[in-house]
Every structure is written in structure tokens, then in C-alpha cells.
Design goal:
The protein is an alpha+beta fold. It has helices spanning 63-75, 97-113, 119-129, 133-138, 173-178, 189-199, 212-218, 220-232, 253-264; strands spanning 2-19, 25-45, 48-52, 80-86, 141-146, 150-154, 161-166, 237-239, 246-250, 269-274. The protein binds cytidine-5'-monophosphate (C5P).
């Protein structure tokens, strides 16, 4: 039995540079793993089977099963595994939970089956599973470009504290991306500033998220959650990914904890987290 943790990610900044001929969007983002984690356990077996503590993810779209089958097909057709996933990261929340679980599956089966493959091989598999999966093969804090498949690792930086706030609505990433107006384009400079601070090993701070306005027009609850949170952390609040989870940065654990308690009074799901250093077990951690 082997246990791997799959961390949630937050986007410290995310800008959409344009729509690509393949239907995806060209983006630039600084992504950061935080200390909210799902736990994945794997053990040897003849077939591939998954147990989870949630009934909400249909088998056909479950990224853990898709990742396990892709890994088996590509590297070890004669091996199977029993996988057990304990989910704590909210679903369809902009926190990359499903993508992180998929990457954790690759990491776990690589160890369990003794797969000898390169970072490039894993990146290939990752991009066939979803745009955010590649980031989790590096983890830590990274600059992410292209459709999400080009990842440049950044230093872990000083300890930083965040409160994650979720209003309880589930958001379709595709719906938000597809509702962007065709003239919506950003040049990426806010994100580059965040990346530059991060590259100097400073606190990256918070940039901008170009999906926010579209998200708010589609999901008014997300806007209310953002406004309520931003009152406690002005200029340090951002939506993560396509939302609806809101991220607010605070100076320390006590300030973050107090804000989380205040926000929970509105009925929001909250978590107090810090940045998670890059882990050495990721196939691309040393790239
Ligand atoms: O890659 P993934 O399946 O996670 O993406 C979900 C949806 O988000 C895509 O179908 C697409 O509509 C949108 N997307 C996009 N551009 C990206 C990433 C995602 O348009 N770079």
C-alpha cells in the first residue's frame, strides 16, 4: 500500500491571451499548490478499481480512473491496481482537485509498478487528461503557459497564508471559457509581475484573473462571495481559475483563521491554507 497526497492549486494570477484554433484558450498563469489535499492510496491488484468517499464523480469522467487506465495501457498492460481516494478538495471549484488527483495517480502508479519513464512521457499523458494536470507533475509554485501544458517551475518563496472561500455552487470551466467575449484579451503583464516576484523568491502577491467578470455574470453567488471576502482582504483577493472559489491572502495564520471564521458565518465553505513546497516525488520536480 502506498499513499500519495494530491494538493489543491490556486491561481495567483491568470490571464487569457486569446482563443486558439483548437478551441482552447492561450493563457498565462502563476499556479501554486496549497496545503489542502486529497489522499490517494494504491495497492497491487489484477484489475483497475477505484473507491472514493464521494458518489459525485461518475466513472466515465473520473480522472483517477482515466489516468490509471492510460498509465496501464502505455507502460504496464499486465499490471492492475486498487485505488482509494479520500476527497477533501471541493469539486468543480477552480482548485484543480480532479487534475491533481490524476497527476497523483500517475505519481503513485509510477512508484507501485516501478515505471521507468521520463518527465516528457508523463507530460504527454498529462495533457491528454486535462489542461491543468501538467502543472501537478511539477507542483510547488510554477508559471504555466500555452493551454496549460507548458510549465516553468518557480522557487517555493516565503511562507504565505490564504483563506479559500467557496459559495457552494459548482462551476463548469468550459461554460466560463466559452462565455468569454471574443474581444476579451489580456496581454499578461500582471501575471508576469507576479512571476517575476516569485522568481526572486519573494512573496508573489496577487495579480489578476481575466475569467472573473465572465464568471460573475454567469454565477451571481460567486460575485457576492468575492465582494464579501474582498472586504476583509482588499486588493489581496482573487478568484481561483474558473471559480467559484475565492482566495484571500493574509499576513499570518491568526489573521487568516479569524477571517475564515468570519466568512463561515455567511454559510461559505472555508479552508485556511499555506503554500506547499514542491515535493521531490513529482516526475518533473527536478526539471
Ligand atoms: O483541459 P480541460 O478538459 O480541463 O478543460 C476544460 C474546458 O476548459 C475545455 O473544454 C475548454 O472549454 C476550457 N479551456 C480552455 N482553454 C484552456 C483550458 C481549458 O478553453 N487553456
Amino acid at each position: 500500500m502506498l499513499t500519495v497526497r494530491a494538493a489543491a492549486k490556486i491561481n495567483l494570477s491568470l490571464e487569457i491571451l486569446g482563443k486558439r484554433p483548437d478551441g482552447y484558450h492561450e493563457l498565462v498563469s502563476v499556479m501554486r499548490e496549497v496545503t489542502l489535499v486529497d489522499e490517494l492510496r494504491v495497492s497491487h491488484s489484477d484489475d483497475i478499481a477505484l473507491r472514493t468517499n464521494t458518489t459525485d464523480i461518475p466513472d466515465g469522467v473520473n480522472l483517477v480512473l482515466r489516468a490509471a487506465r492510460a498509465m496501464q495501457e502505455r507502460f504496464k498492460p499486465d499490471q492492475g491496481a486498487h485505488l482509494s481516494l479520500e476527497k477533501r478538495i471541493p469539486l468543480a471549484a477552480g482548485l484543480g482537485g480532479g487534475s491533481s488527483d490524476a497527476a497523483a495517480t500517475l505519481v503513485a502508479l509510477r512508484q507501485l509498478w516501478g515505471v521507468d519513464a521520463t518527465c516528457h512521457d508523463y507530460l504527454d499523458l498529462a495533457s491528454s487528461l486535462g489542461s491543468d494536470v501538467s502543472f501537478f507533475l511539477y507542483g510547488g509554485t510554477s508559471l504555466v503557459e500555452g493551454r496549460g501544458e507548458r510549465v516553468v517551475p518557480l522557487p517555493d518563496g516565503p511562507e504565505a497564508w490564504y483563506v479559500l472561500v467557496n459559495p457552494g455552487v459548482r462551476v463548469s470551466t468550459a461554460h466560463v471559457f466559452n462565455s468569454l467575449a471574443s474581444e476579451d484579451r489580456w496581454e499578461g503583464s500582471a501575471t508576469c509581475e507576479v512571476a517575476a516576484r516569485s522568481a526572486r523568491n519573494e512573496d508573489p502577491g496577487i495579480g489578476t484573473n481575466s475569467l472573473q467578470t465572465t464568471l460573475f455574470s454567469l454565477y451571481p453567488d460567486a460575485e457576492r462571495c468575492f465582494e464579501t471576502t474582498a472586504e476583509l482582504a482588499p486588493r489581496r483577493t482573487i478568484v481561483s481559475g474558473s471559480g467559484p472559489t475565492v482566495v484571500a491572502q493574509f499576513d499570518g495564520a491568526n489573521q487568516a483563521g479569524a477571517a475564515a471564521a468570519e466568512l463561515a458565518r455567511y454559510g461559505y465553505w472555508t479552508a485556511t491554507v499555506r503554500n506547499r513546497p514542491r515535493k521531490g516525488d513529482r516526475p518533473c520536480a527536478s526539471s
